[in-house]
Design brief:
The protein has 196 residues and is α/β, with parallel strands linked by helices. The chain is built from five helices and eleven strands, in the order E-E-E-E-E-E-H-H-H-E-E-E-H-E-E-H. The strands form two sheets. A nine-stranded mixed sheet has the order 5-4-3-6-7-8-9-10-11, with helices on both faces. A two-stranded antiparallel sheet has the order 1-2. Strand 3 and strand 4 form a beta hairpin. The longest helix has 23 residues. The chain is elongated, with a radius of gyration of 20 Å. The protein starts with a strand and ends with a helix.
Length: 196
């Protein structure tokens, strides 16, 4: 069985024709279980990433290989939820303004995002509904840009006041420090993937 073939069937057309129909999987995310694996649009982890494979974005983190082996169905459902969140983000159009780089599954069962807006922004989403939070995130990023500010961390996870959003702004000092850190993370990820 080839990992890139999602479905295959054979049709026989009499008198002498056989038709083979293949459906190719499309990688829509990369999940990290210590090493990267590709995930298809059905949320199925189907192949360990190797050099030459596409790097599907977003990267999904926060899951362990042990948890996947212990509770494959439960972990697969959470990965599908992350892919659904990525699709909602993409469908909102916000990905054009602030591309989604990472979705992280938190220990509390909620998701956080890392979006790129000149520099990475950590967005602690908390629980759903995510559609409304994505709309509010777009408005917030536009407002910050108009005001000449850049966010470092955005919190949507206030359970007591769910309408409250807390923003940690970047200062000139931490912009320089984060730019250096971002380059280090990129180099580390490239080194990790080149060893595979």
């Amino acid at each position: 069985e080839h990992p890139w073939i999602g479905d295959a069937y054979i049709k026989r057309r009499l008198p002498r024709t056989v038709e083979i129909v293949l459906t190719e999987r499309r990688a829509v995310a990369t999940v990290i279980f210590e090493v990267p694996y590709l995930v298809d649009d059905a949320g199925e982890v189907f192949k360990r990433w190797v050099r030459g494979d596409p790097i599907a974005s977003p990267v999904v983190t926060g899951f362990s290989r042990e948890a996947f082996l212990k509770d494959g169905d439960g972990t697969a459902k959470k990965i599908r939820d992350a892919i659904d969140l990525a699709a909602r983000y993409r469908n909102s159009g916000l990905h054009k303004r602030a591309p989604l780089a990472e979705i992280h599954y938190e220990e509390d069962g909620n998701f956080s995002l890392v979006v790129m807006d000149a520099e990475p922004i950590y967005v602690k989403f908390g629980g759903g509904p995510y559609r409304r939070k994505i709309t509010r995130l777009a408005a917030l990023l536009n407002q910050l840009r108009r005001d000449g500010h850049r966010a470092s961390i955005i919190y949507f996870d206030n359970e007591i006041s769910p309408n409250r959003i807390t923003v940690k702004l970047r200062t000139k000092e931490n912009q320089t420090r984060n730019r250096i850190r971002k380059n280090d993370k990129t180099n580390i990820l490239q080194k990790r993937m080149s060893k595979i």
